Amino acid sequence: MKTSPRKTRDSYMELIRRHPLRHLRTAAEYAAASKVLQSLVMRDEKTLDDGENDYLEAMEDLIDAYDDKHGTLNADHGTPTSRLNYLLEQNKLTMIDLSKLLGVSPALASMMMSGQRAISRASAKKLGERFRVDPGLFI
Q: Nearest to residue 15, comparing CAs of 60, 46, 74?
């Protein structure tokens, strides 16, 4: 008796069926896309497979494009770095506070604040929890 090969999970296509990758035109589409993005960002990045990572990157681009076009955030706060700095300023937090929050060195926190270092998914998750915003804003 022949056994059929085991069917491999195609996480990318599962996510496409859940929320297709297309330009976001309305606030409702933006909200739905943000929800999907947040579900991926909130997971430990080591548990994401290649398909989920590919989808995540494409969705981030679509959300960024919507933000740029529709100004969902103040124009002064359009990049992950500027959003971080805005929230730090509004909450009267310093680079030292940021390093403690993220569990990183002050030098690394400074590099994130200046845009010399990208904000990791793990850090974005911590920032999202601290400031009660979508972690995708920092990626």
A: 60
